[in-house]
Every structure is written in C-alpha cells, then in structure tokens.
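User: Here's a chain of 242 residues. Predict its fold as tokens.
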Amino acid sequence: MESQQTRVLVQLRDLILKGEFAPGERLAEIPLAEKLGVSRTPIRLALAALEQEGLIEPSPTNGYMMRRFTPREIHDAIAVRGHLEGMAARLVAEHGVSRQLSLDLRACLQDGDRAVNKAEMTYDDYALYGEMNDRFHKLVIDAAGNFALARAIEMNNRLPFASPSTMLPMQNTGDERQKWMVYAHLQHHRLVQAMEKGEGARAQALAEEHVDVAQMNLEYALERPETAAQLLPAMKIVLGKA
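Assistant: Prediction complete.
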C-alpha cells in the first residue's frame, strides 16, 4: 500500500503541476480514483498530503479544491526553505555525523542513484526518488537537533511548492527533466560529503544552493510566458496574478 500510495501522490502532484485543474476547482475522490485506476483510500491519503504541501486547500463544500498561487508566494517559500535547511546542514556538520546517520544518508544516496541513473525515469522511479528525498531531508533536519528549527521547516513546508518533493515533476519533460534530477541528486552527494567532513559553512552553502533548481524553474516560466505552458503548465495558475 505504501508504494501505491506514494505513486498516487506523485501522479496527483504531477497533474496539478501540469495545470490539469483550475484554481478553485473541486477535487473529488471518486473521479480522481477512476482517472488513476485506484481505490479511494490512496486518493484520500494523497489529497491530505497535498494539503500539507500547500498545493490544495479544504473546500467550503467538503473535500478539497485547487489553491490559487502568486509568484511571490512560491519564491519566498522556496527561499525560506533553503535558509532553514542550510542552518540544519551546518548544525549537523558541526555536531558530527554519527556512523548510523552516515549509513542512513548513504542508503538514501544509493536509492536516488537507482532512480535517476537510467535511460528514462518512470512514475515508479519518481516515487522512489520522492520517498528517498523526503527521507534524506528528514534525516538532516532531525540530526540538527534543533526543535525550533524543525518546527519552522515543518510550517514552511505547508506553503505552496515549498516542500522538497513538491517541485520534482515541474521540470521540463523527457531528458531535460531527468538532467535536473541528476543534478539535484549530485548536490545530495556533495552535501553528505561536506557534513561528514565537518565543513559547516560549505554544508550550509550547499543546502541553500540546493533550492536553486526550484527557483530557476519558477523564474524561467515567469520570464518566458509563451513557453511556460509547455515547460511548467502549473504556472497558468500564477502568471499575471502577482
């Protein structure tokens, strides 16, 4: 069930980011279940997760509906995540990486390598990468040992497009999308190396730089509205509504 649940979450997130649903549109469980060929249970769980990510919101008539975003909301949320996770990475490097933490982080790197290092990624690969990515970021945040910081990150992740995995399907299709994924995962490798070496300043800089891919996607769409519908269809929700 967990694997199916993750796959459904990835598929729904992808549909949202491709602009399949209009702002304010109600997202009903039964039609979505029929569309994806699954039962209502994974749909219900996925919608709850998408609300936590800030992509959808409760509907006044029960259930959920699409949120309306502005470019400034998305930019600010991504920027804040970079600074907060940068602080977490620095603290981990300064505290020292335990043997168990190192093993757990390297297990994440191996899972990510399996997902991105292939000819073409499938939804199952994106699901695997999404699970790994969430686990990786949680390991770093938990290892920082700062409750206030962890709470701030949790709250920020509820803002539109702020959580680490939300942006995964937003890049261009095909080879271009996968290139961005490979680049992002290479940053994971470099971050682990910096933390294991106790390089606090470098770890912080790498974690802050890690969100640049998401910012570049947003800026590309806003600067090129004529191609945004092809590259980032979800920007139909925000273009011209700043």
